[in-house]
Amino acid sequence: MSVKTYRIHKPKVVVLGGGTGLPVILKSLRNQGVDITAVVTVADDGGSSGVIRDSITMAPPGDLRNVLVSLSDMPRLYEDIFQYRFKSEDHFLANHALGNLIIAAISEMRGSTYEAVQLLSKMMHVDGRVFPSSDEPLILHAVFKDGTTAVGESNIAKQRKTIDRVFVQNQHNLEEPKAARKVISSILAADMVVLGPGSLFTSILPNLMITEIGQALLETKAETVYICNIMTQKGETEQFTDAEHVRVLHEHLGQRFIDTVLVNIEKVPEDYMDNDRYDEYLVQVKHDFTSLRNEGCRVVSTDFLELRDGGVFHDGEKVVQELLRLVYERKRVN
């Protein structure tokens, strides 16, 4: 008697962003029985990444480094070596993360940051795929409500002005950026696309402002989920409600595309934040559930809060639990 075998298809989840928020979600999503693709911003021009991208024609490595580590099962010692940052008194190597230098070296060897990340993914036993949003370093431009402009991701928040819109250009030829290989096909084939958590204007939107990626988000049949920030950010989202975050995303792509918003409703204890260490964060994001629904979004509001080291973060396990519930619910319906 023949025995039929049934292939279980893993849900395909694409996560877009950058900064410190993206690795938190990816680390908790790893080993959860889903097919993960991380699409990482390449508009960072500060710190070690900024110095390297100005020295070598390559996408900035810092966010890519952190994402690779978050999806890797390499031993903790190897992770510590890859993440080691040289001391400030080390002059030439001051403040460079060793992993950034390794990514830079392989990018030069292979002539492509994309190829370097694919090679490192194999070496580091990454569970999933990691793609830079573009194979070229991008320059982020901001246009403020008063008509003035700022150039460079690290300069925008310093202006402390209300941002009207942002856009990106290739660093070296100022042409319209192109998405890296397999980014678009991954978005179009996904069951779920997750944006955030992360800086709205400097970590999330730089990906969406690559025209091909923005168009793919409008065309994909995937559930598109936005993880709203817990705190407002200095020079970016001051006084923003959760609905205003979503409104900005919709305005930048010219139509509504966010299906579901995850909103933390747990209160941050008064006087908890270490404001010297986390000086970019201001106050807790206020809620406007009526306006969120007017933006066409389903709202999932619960306790996603994690307090540690004097800072306010998303609890990766709680967020991923909700993402899994949503993606499996969608697969059952379809």
TrEMBL record:
<keyword id="KW-0963">Cytoplasm</keyword>
<dbReference type="GO" id="GO:0008360">
    <property type="term" value="P:regulation of cell shape"/>
</dbReference>
<dbReference type="GO" id="GO:0005737">
    <property type="term" value="C:cytoplasm"/>
</dbReference>
<dbReference type="InterPro" id="IPR038136">
    <property type="entry name" value="CofD-like_dom_sf"/>
</dbReference>
<comment type="function">
    <text>Required for morphogenesis under gluconeogenic growth conditions.</text>
</comment>
<comment type="similarity">
    <text>Belongs to the gluconeogenesis factor family.</text>
</comment>
<dbReference type="Pfam" id="PF01933">
    <property type="entry name" value="CofD"/>
</dbReference>
<dbReference type="InterPro" id="IPR002882">
    <property type="entry name" value="CofD"/>
</dbReference>
<dbReference type="InterPro" id="IPR010119">
    <property type="entry name" value="Gluconeogen_factor"/>
</dbReference>
<protein>
    <recommendedName>
        <fullName>Putative gluconeogenesis factor</fullName>
    </recommendedName>
</protein>
<dbReference type="GO" id="GO:0043743">
    <property type="term" value="F:LPPG:FO 2-phospho-L-lactate transferase activity"/>
</dbReference>
